[in-house]
Structures are given as C-alpha cells and as structure tokens.
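Reposting from the mailing list since nobody answered there.

I have sequence plus structure tokens for a pair of proteins and want to know whether others read the tokens the same way I do. The first protein:
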Amino acid sequence: MGNPYDNATDKLSVLGPTLVFKGELSADEDLMLKGRVEGSINHTASLRIGKEGSVVGNITAKFITVEGRVEGDLHGSAAVTVKESANIDGNIFSPTVSLLEGSNFNGSIEMKKKKGEAAATPRSADGSSQESRPAARTASGNR
C-alpha cells in the first residue's frame, strides 16, 4: 500500500479526542491535536491544539494555534495564536504572537526576530548610517 499523502493536497494528521500519548511526539506534516499529550512536541510544520486537546509539556513548531489547554512553554518559529477558548500556563517565545480576547494565559511572552530579519538600519539623506553617528547630548547640564 502506498503513502496516503502521495496524492493529498493537504497533509494533515489528526490525533483524536480519545488518544492519550505519553513521550516525545515529532512530525513534519500539519497536525491537529484533539486528544492529550503528556510530553514534548517537536514539530516542523503547523500544530493546532483543538478545544478538546491538551498538552502537558513544551511545544516547538513553526506555527502554533491553541484552542485547548497547554501546561508548558510554546516555541513558535513563525507565529503563535492563542484563541478565545485557550488556557495556557507557560511562556511563549515567537516573533509573532496573537492573544485573542477571552483566552486565559499565565506566563510571559518573548518576541524576537530571527537573525537576519532585523529591521534595516535607518539611513540619512546622504546615505550614511545613523547608527555610526554619536548620540546627541541632552541639555541636562551633565557632561
């Protein structure tokens, strides 16, 4: 029997509501979690924790969307979205984070761009970098 994804346009795996998984879960296709995972999730694509889904452990994925319960840190390399029904106890690390009104989030958020994605250094009209100029002094009297 061939690979079921050979002819599929959307590569999505669904872990159903009766599933309980213990250990480290990793995948390369989009994943919808409706069950319970006790352990870490390392993912290279999009991960959605459904309303009935829960994770006790850290999550790493490109895109993370949480509608259910997470106890652990979320590391989104592209974006993390926390929906209205979400309940999160943990920290979020991602360059883009969306917290929708009604969500329950307890933790901190750190938003850093990847190296090479930093904003361009502002340039003056003559083309020189503004960073290379000394900072202007304020008129405070302290020199």
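The second protein, same order (residues first, tokens after):
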Amino acid sequence: MGHLVCSVATTNDLRRYPRLSAPKGTILAWENASMRHVSYVANLGLGGLYIRTREAPPPGTFIRLLLDAPTGQVRARAIVQRSNPKEGMGVKIVAMQQEDRARFARWLKLLTS
C-alpha cells in the first residue's frame, strides 16, 4: 500500500529538483525549429524552468535555451511539458553540457544562499 501516490500532491512535490523563483528581470533566449524568442523566466531549477511567453509551443516540442547567468552562459536542450497559451510554458531540461550544468548549479546555489 505504501507505493500509492497521494492524489493531492502538487506538481512541485513530484519534481526531482526544487524550483526557485527567478530573480526579477531574468531573461533567456530560446528557439525551436521555427522561431526565436527572448522571454522572462518565472522559476528555475536543475530539472527545468517556467518561461513566460505569449507564444508557447505545444507540449512535446524540443527547444534550445541560452541563459546568461551571473556565473556564465548556460546552454541546454529542453522539452515543453506544459503550455499555457498567452501565458508561458513549463520545460524540462533534457540535455546540458557538463560545464553548463556546473555554471547553472553554481548560480542556483548562489540564489539559495
């Protein structure tokens, strides 16, 4: 019986990495096969981000991210998990070079200290 997932669990409870509120004014560049955008970041964590955009692609779309963090540029590939038209999208990071991951992790650690 202990393996049942509680039905009132929030999405956040199921995340492998916690999400942090992005510092005010945090932006990133993102692109997919057909478009390029610069958008604000609402929250972020090693597992993914919530990006504010009026033109969110549908779930399942792969996108490339470029984030200028205080610790250096962070590049990643992500997949759109949730898409809210005219509002934004939740994306899951699927690929990141080791150096990018190290810069991103350092920045997240600075944000929590």
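Reply #1 (J.P.):
I read it the same way you do. The helical segments are 98-112.
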